[in-house]
Amino acid sequence: MSNIKGRQIGKITADELKLIQDQQNKVNSILVEIGYQESRKHALLHDLADTNEIINSTKKELQDKYGHIDIDLTTGEWKMHKDVEGNKED
């Protein structure tokens, strides 16, 4: 630091400049990737909302056809929902 006392301007070495340029380029690259991922996340959230609407529509169709049932997603077998079973016994 003694060689810059009293000076108001100067220049860093080429190696130092390259180092900080590389570091800044990495930051910029990361920020671009974060932006891309956020955009992708946004699109996926819309897809999820659309899929949930379709699922709810299917649930309503099945409930209109079979009543309030629980479906085994592996076998397709169904049974009356517990709340419905309890109400029938009353």
How would you sum up this structure, described in words?
The structure is a single chain. Helix content is 68%, strand content 7%. The chain is built from 2 helices and 2 strands. The longest helix has 53 residues, at 14-66. A two-stranded antiparallel ribbon has the order 1-2. The protein is mostly helical and 90 residues long. The protein has one domain (12-89). The chain is rod-shaped. The model has no long low-confidence stretch (mean pLDDT 91).
Brief overview:
By secondary structure, the protein is mainly alpha-helical. The protein is 68% helix and 7% strand.
**Beta-strand segment tally:** 2
pLDDT below 50 for ≥5 consecutive residues: which ranges?
A: none
Question: Distance N terminus to C terminus?
Answer: 90 Å
Main sheet specs: 2 strands, antiparallel
- Rg: 32 Å
Please, how many domains? 1
- How do the strands line up in the largest sheet? 1-2
Number of helices: 2
Mean pLDDT: 91
Roughly what percent helix? 55-70%
Given helix and strand content, the structural type is mainly alpha
Q: Which band does the percent of strand residues land in?
A: 5-15%
Order of helices and strands: HEEH
Overall geometry comes to: rod-shaped
